[in-house]
Amino acid sequence: MSGPELELLSGGQKRLLYGLLGLGALALGVGLATHSGGVYSGILLGFLFMLELGLGGALFLCINATANARWHTVFRRVPEGVAATLPWAALLVLLFVWAVPHIYPWAAPGFYTDPSRLVGGVLIPELKAKEGWLQPGWFSLRAVLFVAWWAGLMSLILRLQRGQGLGGANHAGAIRKLSILFCVTFAYTFSVASFDWLMSLEPRFYSTIFGVYCFAGVMQLGFAVVLLLTLFLDAKGAFKDQIREQHRHDLGKWLFAFSCFWAYIWFFQFMLIWYADLPDESRYYVRRGGLRADVMALVVLLRFCVPFFGLASQKVKKNPRILAAVALIVVAGHWLDLALMALPSQAGGMRNLYALLIPVGTGAAFVLLFFRAFAKKPALPEPDAAYAYSRRYLT
Predict the structure, then answer these.
(1) CA–CA distance from 375 to each of 1, 38, 58, 240 (Å)?
(2) Which of 126, 189, 233, 312 is deepest in the core (most CB within 10 A)?
């Protein structure tokens, strides 16, 4: 069933989503009109939240294609719809690069010549090594190139993916090669983007594991969103009862696994910085101490404790209601994690309403764009060997 045959969203749900989108747009407009410093942090979080939602679906597709996996074929249109939002999220990069001078301290004129950052007339080593890299023009160009590459390559993969099986067409080989290319290049470009967009908010801070930490977060987010949307559409009857408990079980296992992986990386970044106790590293966690330590504990609760204990049982991983609740909690935990990484160094700190309202708006835009993309094609892909395997999938 496609959109014309099945009402995917009720009138009330559409009004709610458009209302949230309007609320985010209103917050952005008010913040810019009043020259509020906090609105620029909201732009950063809104851009990252929507972009990472789309990237999560793209990684889900590419990892499965790279492994020649077929188990997910019956609900493949879901991660395709999620990844199809990437070009729209990519447009937000233009707003982001415009806001760069207001977000990053190193982008302000005179940052590298400020006497407080000089020792004997020479820039301190922690900043000297980054001076050439952290320049607004070069930074903005990297951001545009990274996002354009991800969106462009994913659009090509989706074009082939959607034509798979039509008229006997078989693009599996080309899809796999492009998916491998996406995964390999994403590993490098997203690590660099994480250093740029989040770690450089505090330019003296550095962590070699930071890129892996952000990657783990996107993977966990991707599986949570695909799981949540698959369960929602299945409840609507979109898949004609083709979703088996084995599919739900495997989606639950993936979410459980990446929750553990995220926690593993989170702990080792924290532990190594705590153990070494170097000022430029430990300052990052000192700034997140005090009242913000409660927020840090909440992030761990939402991103690790809830999915770990909530999905430990095999029986629970087949229960759609519990799976949906855990996935929704993980998505909320991801936003809070982004906020904790970005806001303590920004104007207004964690008490920044724009950092909530603008991501809520871009999140609503993501959901609307997903359903728009999903409704363009039948919910079930063209029958082929992979589809037949997925229909009778057992674990």
Answers:
(1) 9, 37, 18, 15
(2) 233
Residue 384 lies in a domain: no
DSSP letters, 132-143, are TTS-HHHHHHHH
**The pair of three-digit structure tokens given for residue 328, joined into one six-digit string:** 């929704």
Which pairs from 24-30 meet CB under 8 Å and 24+ separation?
24/357, 24/358, 24/359, 24/360, 24/361, 24/362, 24/364, 24/365, 25/361, 26/357, 27/353, 27/354, 27/357, 27/358, 27/361, 28/354, 28/358, 28/361
Are 171 and 160 in contact, with CB atoms under 8 Å apart?
yes
Range of the structural domain that residue 75 is part of? 14-105+133-159+169-378
Q: Is residue 121 part of a domain?
A: no
Domain contains 1: no
Q: Say how far apart CA 274 and CA 137 lie, in whole Å.
A: 35
| Cα–Cα distance for residue pair 273/206, rounded to 1 Å | 10
- Look over the chain and give the mean of its residue pLDDT values, rounded to a whole number: 90
Query: Tokens 């004997």 sit at which residue?
Result: 120
List, for residues 52-75, the tens digit of each pLDDT value.
999 999 999 999 999 999 888 899
pLDDT of residue 1 exceeding 60 = no
Counted domains in the chain: 1
Of 385 and 224, more confident: 224
Instruction: Let me know if 37 is exposed, middle or buried by CB neighbors in 10 A (0-12, 13-18, 19+).
Output: middle
